[in-house]
């Protein structure tokens, strides 16, 4: 494996790329019959992790759904992350952090350091400048983690910003270029590219993603089909990490494992 992020890449090679989201929203908790509380979020996380552990190698807790319960929610999140990693799962903390200077250092320490929230990867927002994320990149480089930079999201309102053009390229292509330059031949920096719209719609080509790990939300309940992953990402497909969340729980508590297995059968790469 090449340098940083080797655990994530080795998991993709040995187990497969499918990532299962841990999203204890009020709706998802109700769907599986769990109380909308911090304890419920913890129970939900444990159920998803248990179903994922023998089937996939990657889980992605959505931090916001734990933060809404305050300190109790963060304790629940700490437990979910720790237990998932102890079970051999790679954890991507979907926190979308982004700041400057010592504030970004604080986020890097929290999510990629050796504290109670330590994860194998972190999502970040480059709005305040790509270089502002350097503390997270440096921490990832030293700890063997990966930082996924928001590049092309699928929400319609994103076009107001993401279709901005500079030097003949749309913003997502510029973010991808900066990510490639910083990551080099390691996996320190990856990008987030939503799967519900084609690359060309966001000013991207498969070559723009070359060499990068790509976290791809939007499969399952959000509308993208895992069977279409190669049609969406082309030559970049082998390094794409497709993520499913709501579709895993929408059939209820007793169908989570079978839903994960169904997604695995659908995934054609």
Account of the protein in words:
By secondary structure, this protein is α/β, with parallel strands linked by helices. The chain has a domain at 6-15 and 95-266: Alpha-Beta Barrel (TIM Barrel), CATH 3.20.20.70. Helices cover 41% and strands 16% of the residues. The chain has helices at residues 6-14, 26-31, 38-53, 64-67, 71-86, 101-112, 134-143, 159-162, 171-183, 229-233, 246-249, 256-266, and strands at 19-22, 58-61, 90-97, 121-124, 146-152, 165-166, 169-170, 189-193, 214-216, 240-244. The strands form two sheets. Strands 1-2-3-4-5-8-9-10 form an eight-stranded parallel beta barrel, surrounded by six helices. The longest helix has 16 residues, at 38-53. The chain is globular. 48% of the residues are buried. The model has no long low-confidence stretch (mean pLDDT 93).
Q: H/E order of the elements?
A: HEHHEHHEHEHEHEEHEEHEHH
- Examine the coordinates and then state which fold CATH places here, giving the name of the CATH topology of the domain at 6-15 and 95-266: TIM Barrel
Low-confidence stretches: none
CATH architecture of the domain at 6-15 and 95-266: Alpha-Beta Barrel
Largest sheet: 8 strands, parallel, barrel
Number of strands: 10
Quaternary state, please?
Answer: single chain
Spell out the CATH superfamily of the domain at 6-15 and 95-266.
Aldolase class I
Shape: globular
Percent strand equals 15-25%
Overall CATH class of the domain at 6-15 and 95-266: Alpha Beta
The main sheet orders its strands as 1-2-3-4-5-8-9-10
Indicate the percent of residues in helices: 40-55%
End-to-end distance: 20 Å
Which structural class fits the helix and strand makeup? alpha/beta
Radius of gyration: 17 Å
Mean pLDDT, to the nearest integer, reads 93
Number of helices: 12
